[in-house]
Design brief:
Radius of gyration: 16 Å
CATH architecture: Up-down Bundle
Largest sheet: none
Helix content: 55-70%
Order of helices and strands: HHH
Number of domains: 1
Number of helices: 3
Distance between the termini: 36 Å
Strand content: under 5%
Shape: extended
Structural class: mainly alpha
CATH superfamily: DksA, coiled-coil domain
Number of strands: 0
Bound molecules: zinc ion
CATH class: Mainly Alpha
């Protein structure tokens, strides 16, 4: 059935997204334990408290994230990478 393949593809993509998110959360917890939480991995500046409250698993400050997205031509900022 064609539809089953479509749903399977959607479910796999969703699963992969969640696994990526989980890996990001695990990495952030490790940074927290090592005292490196809240520091941008790109520029080394402190990530703002507002951003950390909104995206606690982020490893980039909003400026680096924005630069990255502009370079890649991405125009949304709603994920936490
Ligand atoms: Zn940065």
């Amino acid at each position: 059935m064609q539809e089953a393949q479509t749903y399977a593809a959607l479910l796999r993509r969703r699963r992969d997204d969640l696994l990526d998110e989980l890996a990001g959360i695990e990495a952030t917890l490790r940074r927290l334990e090592q005292g490196r939480f809240g520091v941008c991995e790109c520029c080394g500046q402190a990530i703002s408290r507002d951003r950390l409250m909104q995206f606690p698993a982020t490893s980039w400050c909003s400026a680096c994230k924005r630069d990255y997205e502009q370079r890649r031509g991405i125009h949304h900022t709603d994920d936490a990478t």
